[in-house]
Amino acid sequence: MFFFLLPLHAEDLHQWTLHGVAPFQAEIIAADGLRATLQVPGRGKTVIPFTLMSAEDAAYVQDWRKANPKAPLVNPERLAPWPTAAAAESIDVQMTGDDAATSHYTYESAHFIIESDLKLPVAVVREIVAVFEATRKALIAIPLGLHLGHESRKYSVLMLSNANDYGHAGGNGGSGGTYNPFTRQMLILLPNLGIKPGTNGLGLDFQRNLFVLKHEVTHQILGRWQPFLPMWLKEGLSECLAATPYTRGRYSFEGLDAAMHDYVLKWRTNPNQRDLQLIPPAQLMTLDGDQWNAGVAAQSAYPYYNSAALLTYYFLHADGKGDGANLAAYFDDIRRGVDTEKAEAEHLLRGRTRENLGTNLQNFGRKLGLNLKIEAPVQIRPFEAPHAK
Questions:
Q1: pTM for this structure?
Q2: What residues does 155 pair with on adjacent strands?
Q3: 3-state class of 43 per DSSP?
């Protein structure tokens, strides 16, 4: 454990009692949903999980968090280690609405309200809920200060069985899922997920498409960041969660390199293909929402998603010391209102250019067993994609 020295004010000190450690005084400088970062006089910074605190100390942190709602969740100079796993606290689900006349069915879990125009078995909804609840827990557990928890209302999900209804509700053309930042609602096209009526009842071939749910719910849970982040990072974060190993309500953060390797190769038409297109970072990092959605509608956005996933994964696990600290510092700047280009230059580029990142990514790709070919995508204008939003 190492510490960084900063001046303290005596009135900000609190006495802490940890099991097996002599009581000591320290100031809280950050707190997320699982731990607090403390400044210890004469020693520096340390991160203490709530599980190691006394009940009184944990309550003190919660009171501090309420009194300081704009305070940072983490300190980029002293991050907690990445977790090995994160699991949903509960995947219980109840059917709270059943209106066959209007084909409107409602289900609720601890943090989500799900509406559907198909009546789904509760066991199936429970598996969907497990993805949602586990992803929420994973985003709280990742030590980058992305999400605190303590939501004031449940997340809204609308699942539709008809592509026209999906489009009218705001679903992006060519997509199987959409998060609408204006309504804060997640839309899921059930046939794309693998759930659709058939001659022998309801088809439920959805397990292999759970990545769609993992991707879209990440957008939803990180909704407060949406107006401030560039497209490559919004999509890249969602793709990184989609690529993370998941089983029955539990994410594992072990074996991530192999998981990312397999994930970005999932769309190959030739299983022996080794080359993977990488959009030049200088171009990828300037794409806006209209350009991205045009590619989705034209079914040509796979290089966008793969490139965003790899660039984000690089900043999470390979850049600098490989702990994501530079990306955490970028997020901290954005949270404090720093201009995105300034934050990018200071924390992500650090004297490099966007063009330099292409070489960094190619070298990193080789470590993942990927042969990345830098190649610009075919330009698609938004008006050329009739269903783009």
A1: 0.91
A2: 112
A3: coil
Report whether 207 contacts 193 (CB < 8 A): no
Q: Which residues of the chain have pLDDT under 50?
A: 1-8, 382-389
- 251 strand-pairing partners: 86, 246
- CATH number given to 86-384: 1.10.390
Residue pLDDT, tens place only, 238-292: 999 999 999 999 999 999 999 999 999 987 777 777 789 999 999 999 999 999 9
Parts of the chain belonging to CATH 1.10.390: 86-384
| Residue ranges matching CATH 2.30.30.700 in the chain | 10-79
Contact status, residue 311 vs residue 364, Cβ threshold 8 Å = no
In CATH, the architecture of 10-79 is: Roll (2.30)
Q: Long-range contacts made by residues 296-301, C-beta under 8 angstroms, separation at least 24?
A: 296/172, 296/173, 296/174, 296/175, 296/385, 296/388, 297/172, 297/173, 297/174, 297/385, 297/386, 297/387, 297/388, 298/174, 298/380, 298/384, 298/385, 299/174, 300/377, 300/378, 300/380, 301/174
Q: In whole angstroms, what is the distance from residue 176 CA to residue 189 CA? A: 5
Sign of CA dihedral 328, 332, 334, 335: positive
Does residue 71 contact residue 65 with C-beta atoms inside 8 Å? yes
Q: Which among 379, 354, 374 is positioned nearest to 290, based on CA atoms?
A: 379
CA distances from 39 to 6, 137, 174, 253, 372 (A): 8, 26, 50, 28, 43
